[in-house]
What we know:
By secondary structure, the chain is α+β, with helices and mostly antiparallel strands.
Amino acid sequence: xxxxxxxxxxxxxxxxxxxxxxxxxxxxxxxxxxxxxxxxxxxxxxxxxxxxxxxxxxxxxxxxxxxxxxxxxxxxxxxxxxxxxxxxxxxxxxxxxxxxxxxxxxxxxxxxxxxxxxxxxxxxxxxxxxxxxxxxxxxxxxxxxxxxxxxxxxxxxxxxxxxxxxxxxxxxxxxxxxxxxxxxxxxxxxxxxxxxxxxxxxxxxxxxxxxxxxxxxxxxxxxxxxxxxxxxxxxxxxxxxxxxxxxxxxxxxxxxxxxxxxxxxxxxxxxxxxxxxxxxxxxxxxxxxxxxxxxxxxxxxxxxxxxxxxxxxxxxxxxxxxxxxxxxxxxxxxxxxxxxxxxxxxxxxxxxxxxxxxxxxxxxxxxxxxxxxxxxxxxxxxxxxxxxxxxxxxxxxxxxxxxxxxxxxxxxxxxxxxxxxxxxxxxxxxxxxx
Length: 434
């Protein structure tokens, strides 16, 4: 079956933001001509790994940004981005430290007893995609067949909290196999890890009135979103709002503090360009639960928060799409999360395309664009029916679409296509901003 991707631009006042995103997405800045390439960096790291006793079969897969010996894997994208930021005199020692950190991960280190590592457990807050694919996406078998998977607790729709075993020079995410051996749930393991993180001391520092950050820069700043007792002491105006643009950055503000929220968005946008990005989707605290949100005490803040959330999701869905499409092949179309901007108001709207002839995995977007073909064949000229708000589509068709359980979430259409009566109720509109 041939997969088809169709871009819907349905009004002259709209601008496709995929080519020129207003917010930096999760890609490392390109190296200048004087910088080493990622392949050259990988060669340096492989040489040092072998020097420290690494497998002679270690090699670099440039298309996947991976160093592998056929079993274990080292993702190089973030390591390379961090390497480029170092001064020339710091780079040799940085490669040596990185190699040492991976050399620590011996077969024995992957299977420690809980008593050995209890004091070393720390929470690892990441994009949910990190837990879904870092261990599973490169496998040639479905994720459900893997008995040794990363486990995490969901924080909203696109974020997760796992448990890290923090070594002197390395970090390892606890897996389902380890938790089974420890006879402990991920929730209980995360509670231990959070207690250990809290024991490190008071975590927050004022940036400006109403805006706080975690200043540690120890790869666990984003994880301090779990220190709820400390957060509640900050006395923020309204509901607590957090942003975690990268592992070394956490911002906190109140949902009713417009100035602090706008400042947080500006800082998070810049921080999303740093190595080890997470996302820019705002999270709000209700009781002890974090969930995705778009606070809007003023129209300006509402527009800004929606833009941050939209561009954050676009980055995550783009990364997920490439991995999923490679995994699933051509029989299923993994739809893009596309963003348009109204030139008059600067408001962003996201959409995903659902084509009649192609089983599709839809990202959760603001709109769904419906496309069908005159003779029922994907080779025919497409007919764009229009856009339907996500919530309306789910209200009418929700029982037909199956959530795939991933993070970020997608919904599978299968072979289903709305009937004429259902399309009449959906009433697709030409203008995506209505």
